[in-house]
Amino acid sequence: MQNLSSEEQHQESGVRRQVETIRPASAGPSAELKAVTGVDVDPSTELRAGWQGYPLLAGINGVGDLKGLSVAQLKQLADEIRQFIIETVGRTGGHLASSLGVVEITLALHYVFDFEKDKLVWDVGHQCYAHKIVTGRKEEFRNLRHAGGVSGFPNPEESPYDQFAVGHAGTSIGTAIGLALGEALRQAQGEAKQAGQNKIVALVGDGSIVNGASFESLNNLGLVKRQMLIVLNDNSMAIDATQGAVAKYFSKIRLSQTYEDLRRTTSDILEHTPVIGKTVEEAIERIKKSIRMVLPASQLFESLNVPYFGPVDGHDIGALVQLFRAMKQVNHPVILHCHTKKGMGFTPADSQPSKYHSTGPFKMNGDVVEPATEKQGRSFTDAFGDELVRLAEKDKKVVAISSAMCEGTGLKKFRERFPDRFYDVGIAESAAVEIAAGLAKSGMRPVVCIYSTFLQRSFDQIFQEVSLQNLPVVFCIDRAGMVGADGPTHHGLMDIGYLRMMPNLALISPADAVEVGGALGFALSADRAVCVRYPKEIIASQQIAESSSEPFVLGKSVVARRSDKSVAVIISYGSILVEAIAAARALAEEGIEVDVINARFAAPIDSRIVELLGSGKPVITVEDHGVACGFGSAVMEAAGQHSGGFVPQRDGGAVRMLGVPKRFVRHNSRNNQLMEVGINADKIAETVCQMLNR
Fold first, then answer.
1. Are strands 333-339 and 308-313 parallel, antiparallel or unpaired?
2. Residue of 612, 625, 691, 618 whose CA lies nearest to 658
3. How many angstroms from the chain centroid is the CA of residue 85?
4. Exposed (0-12), middle (13-18) or buried (19+): which is 649, by Cβ within 10 Å?
5. Could you tell me if 490 and 453 are in contact, meaning their C-beta atoms sit under 8 angstroms apart?
6. What is the number of other CB atoms lying within 10 angstroms of the CB of residue 129?
7. Does an H or E element contain 230, and which?
8. Could you give the CA distance from residue 316 to residue 108 in angstroms, rounded to a whole number?
């Protein structure tokens, strides 16, 4: 490894040896996990029985226990926590590389600060695993991201140590500013006599500093007239390698720094920080004259009038403890720049941080990491990635844009095949849409691939730069609907609502592998913007209905199942069609025949669907989206504007909308979440029977 001390190399090899010698637990964890989640766990990846093999971690039941350790013991504890994270994520899946890289920073922060009263604000949040383990949640961490276990992100419902439920980038500096300003106001109003004594720390990492929201907040940091520490966890990575000028700026700094340079910078900072008889201001002036303006990174932040310190070694826990103690005394906002390694201590994640940014369960086979379970089939993401490459082969105007999610959105093959037509803008979804608008205006056919939850961040750009201009941009909306273990920060349950209100946008959702090709082909040939949504799900290996092969026609649905004896109608939008068909088959076995319509479009709504509402038959709409403002709501709105009017009930007919209720759905498996909110085959069939009074 480059630029690692012998001590770091020893720690890293030690952790690797520990991982390679994992032994099955004699009892408990796998049975416990299966009882809660229904998931079998490969015994080769089980955690050790009790806390065997974790001599220090066994005694850490809260932050108070952590503070009783020596700095030397903190180093050992960091090794143990890394092993525990690796073993746990090997069983449950999760965000591995990011959390491994921030262990020392996390321990040092908790060692120095008192976050029962001080405030620790996370950016993105998937780096918080060590934080959860030392704040009294290590037992629940065994079932990470599963029902009965902790979520994969900070969550105030779990612990007072978590300030915000957060899973998006660029938020920590702004919310930390708000906490500081709020405390100052409360003090001025006489409500908080100790205001200003509590410390505030914002931990920024995984490329979040290049996010536009982060820079907007840095621009407003001057509002804060008290202590506030921003820890920049710089690992040169977002989910993929960080893109853009600022990222290259940091990368240049990183490559220019040897381990000795990092140690020398640490010594310089500590030498000039406040000591007895010296004021904070005097110390800051000495640092400014001696080191702060020497490095390019300081020039970037100093231009924003933000005092900067670093870069320092983010894995030297002893130095971090000293630095945090010093920074704790500074009575105005400062940035401490820490160099870390994403995936530190686990060779596969260290060498392939993008692959192990978020991973499913895995097991170790010597030096090789293997999936814990065989892949069941192609995902919607894979299918779209393959289809986009096929269509781009035919049309040189097709270009693809990602926001730091090349692999996650299935664009890896496209990037390899058409590097000159692929753009990764980093964690900057708004910029991605603006760039796409410019490309479309110049005659290209841009395809913007972003997770549903992150596309929310570019609402205004979709409105003004795309909808208002009526430009043919294609939005491939991945992770639409329930996303399973990532939970409420990542569910895609709002995209239909905020997109269908915009003029000049068509909203479509394919139901199976055959429709994937049809949907994307339609989108790339349309004269308007088209949004194509699909879930984080294995795609049906065969077409669900014969109608899947019918071409996509703007605003037209297709009949997936029809019966001359039909007594009810199920109208499905998107991949949930497989559940609707299953419900129809189950009902047929009970002598109840129903028609199933594959809507395909949520905007515009097919007029033939509206006409079904007046048929006298019960109608059920089904979607993997929030009921509020979703597909079913769109149908009802269209009915209200129908020239023939709409009669809610006639001859016993009625309408029922099945979707996700207006509440946040906790982390669980995707199937369990669909069952929980009642948009699976059983609930659909039950609803039909209720409406028929059977």
1. parallel
2. 625
3. 19
4. exposed
5. yes
6. 27
7. strand 228-234
8. 10
pTM for this model (two decimals): 0.78
Instruction: Note the pLDDT tens digit of each residue in 271-313.
Output: 766 543 345 555 555 555 544 434 556 667 777 778 888 788 9
Helix or strand run (H / E) with residue 506: strand 505-508
The gap from C-alpha 600 to its chain's centroid, in whole angstroms, comes to: 27
Domain positions in the chain: 6-365, 380-533, 557-691
Half-sphere exposure of 690 (CA within 13 A, CB side): 10
Fold of 380-533: Rossmann fold (3.40.50)
> What's the rounded Cα separation, in Å, for the pair 499 and 503?
9
Q: Band of the pLDDT at 194, cuts 50, 70, 90?
A: low
State the Cα–Cα distance between residues 508 and 605, nearest whole angstrom.
10
Beta bridge partners of 205: 233
For residue 248, CA distances in Å to 237, 317, 426 come to 11, 27, 12
What is the rounded average pLDDT for all residues in the chain? 83
Q: Is 693 left (phi over 0), alpha (psi -120 to 50) or beta?
A: left
Q: Which CATH class is domain 6-365?
A: alpha beta
> Would you state the torsion angle of the CA atoms of residues 311, 313, 315, 317, taken in this order, to the nearest 10 degrees?
-100
Q: Are 87 and 57 in contact (CB under 8 A)?
A: no
Please report how the helices 259-272 and 280-287 are oriented relative to each other, as an axis angle in degrees rounded to 10. Answer: 150
**96 HSE (CA, 13 A, CB side):** 30
- C-alpha span between 641 and 411 (Å, rounded): 40
Which tens digit of pLDDT belongs to each residue from 220-259?
998 999 999 999 998 865 445 555 566 666 655 655 666 6
Strand partners, 312: 338
Q: What angle do CA 243, 248, 249 make, to 5 degrees?
A: 135
User: What is the residue whose two structure tokens read 């020893």?
Assistant: 10
Q: Rounded mean pLDDT of 516-534?
A: 97
Of 75, 145, 342, 617, catalytic: 342
- Residue pair 325/201 in contact by the 8 Å Cβ criterion: no
Under a CB-based contact definition with an 8 Å cutoff, are residues 441 and 469 in contact? yes
Q: Catalytic annotation on 457? A: yes
Neighbour tally for 220: CB within 10 Å: 14
The amino acid occupying position 559 is V
User: How would residue 570 be classed by pLDDT, with cut points 50, 70 and 90?
Assistant: very high
**263 is a catalytic site residue:** no
Cα–Cα distance list, 282 to 229, 277, 302, 567 (Å): 19, 10, 18, 83
How far is the C-alpha of 380 from the C-alpha of 374, rounded, in Å? 17
Task: List the catalytic residue out of 429, 434, 515, 623.
Answer: 429
Q: Does domain 557-691 have CATH number 3.40.190.10?
A: no
pLDDT digits (tens, 9 = 90+) for 320-354: 999 999 888 888 899 998 988 876 766 665 555 55
Measured between alpha carbons, how far is 651 from 601 in angstroms, rounded to an integer?
Answer: 28
Catalytic residue among 457, 536, 561, 600: 457
Annotated catalytic, 225? no
